[in-house]
Amino acid sequence: MKRLVRRITFIIMLTGALVSLGLTLRAGRNNHSVLLMMLFGIWVFSPFMGMAVAYILSNRWTLFTRNVLYILAMVLTFISLLMYGGVWSPTGIKPAFVFLIVPLLSWLVLAVVIPLTTSRSKKHG
To answer: Are 52 and 6 in contact (CB under 8 A)?
Structure first.
């Protein structure tokens, strides 16, 4: 069961990263700056890379911390896709703002939750 959850998490992260890149390209299709589109693509892709690195390193973590990572990865992926797809976006903001703020918030959540969870596991494990 643990392997199945791990594999599903990886598939969701990979799919989310690719779809997010596609949505980034679609949102910037009228932008003629290749450099700007590359920077947006890298920025949008970066939290998924961070989650992938955490996923790889999680083999050494406690079960509790791994489970938190898997849940967090799935939730952040789904929220990102909803936001990038325009399904769940605040009204009146420019699309570029979503592609800037969602990765930033994803990084912040990862940077806070994973260390807190790891330290909690060490104290109680």
So the answer is: no
